[in-house]
Amino acid sequence: MVRIALCLEYCGSGFEGWQTQPHGRTVQDALEPALAAIAGEPVATVCAGRTDTGVHASTQVVHFDTTANRPLSAWVRGVNTHLPAGVVVTWAQEVAEDFHARFSALSRRYRYVLLNRPMRSALLHGRVGWHHAALDVEAMHAACAFLPGIHDFSAFRAAQCQAASPVRDLRVAQVERRGEWILFDFEANAFLHHMIRNLVGALVDIGKGGHSPGWIQELLAMRDRRLAPPTFSPDGLYLAGVHYPDRWNLPDQGRIIAPLFLPGEG
C-alpha cells in the first residue's frame, strides 16, 4: 500500500462542491472514478479543504492510498484522460503513510477576485465576482487590519457550519486594487463554512460606504451572523494554496496562483 498526494485545479462552476453526493455532480465524484481507472481498484480520496458549489481551486491537495504500482506520470497524465474538462491533476507525489491532506496542513489560502465596474463580465462568467458601483479600497484595507489574529468568527459563520468551534487563527487578510479588479487574500489555519464569502460581503459593504472600517471589529465582538451582510457570491472564490511543513517537500508551497487571468494586466 502506498500513499499518493495530488494537486488539483478545477473550475467550480461545473460542480456542486467537492464532497461526494448521491447525484454524482461533485469534484470528488469525478476524481475517484478517474483514479480507479488507473489503479484498477476503488480509490477513496481526502482533500485539504472542501469547497462549496461554484467555488474554484488552483491548488487543492488530495491524498489517497492504493496497492497499485504506477509511475507518478500515470497519476497525472493518465488520470487526466479520465477527467472532465473542468478539473485537472497538476502534480503527483508519493508521501509517507502519516501524511494527511487535511490534518497535516498548516494553513489554507484563498483568493477572491472581484470585478469592480458597471458591467459584469461575459467572458469570465462564473469565474469572478462582480460589483457594479465603485468601491473604496482604502476603507476596505483599513477594515482588514482588524481581522488577523485568533478570533471567534461566529458573525461570519454559515448557519449550517458543522465546525466544533468558531475560533480560527486568521493570519492574512488583505485587499488591493489592480485597475478594475479587486483582490482579497485570506490565510488561516482553517476556515468556517462560508467564512470568506461572508467576510468579503462585509468588506464590500464597507467599500460602498455602508459602514466605517471599524464596523468589522464590532461584528467580530457581537458574534451574531444575523447582524452581518448576506453571503457573497461564490463565483470569484479560489482555494489558492495549502501550506505544509517543509519535511513533506511538496510543490507549490506558499504560492498564490489564482487566478491565472487578469485581463489588462501585463
Automatic annotation (TrEMBL):
Catalytic activity entry: uridine(38/39/40) in tRNA = pseudouridine(38/39/40) in tRNA
The EC number(s) this enzyme carries: 5.4.99.12
Keywords: Isomerase, tRNA processing
InterPro entries membership: PsdUridine_synth_cat_dom_sf, PsdUridine_synth_TruA, PsdUridine_synth_TruA_a/b_dom, PsdUridine_synth_TruA_C, TruA/RsuA/RluB/E/F_N
Every Pseudouridine synthase I TruA alpha/beta domain range: 9-103, 143-245
Superkingdom of this protein's organism: Bacteria
Keyword Signal set for record: no
Keyword Ribonucleoprotein: no
GO molecular function, one term: RNA binding
Active site residues of this protein: 52
GO BP terms, alphabetized: tRNA pseudouridine synthesis
Function: Formation of pseudouridine at positions 38, 39 and 40 in the anticodon stem and loop of transfer RNAs.
Family designation: Belongs to the tRNA pseudouridine synthase TruA family.
PANTHER family for the chain: PSEUDOURIDYLATE SYNTHASE, TRNA PSEUDOURIDINE SYNTHASE-LIKE 1
Subunit-level organization: Homodimer.
The protein, known as: tRNA pseudouridine synthase A
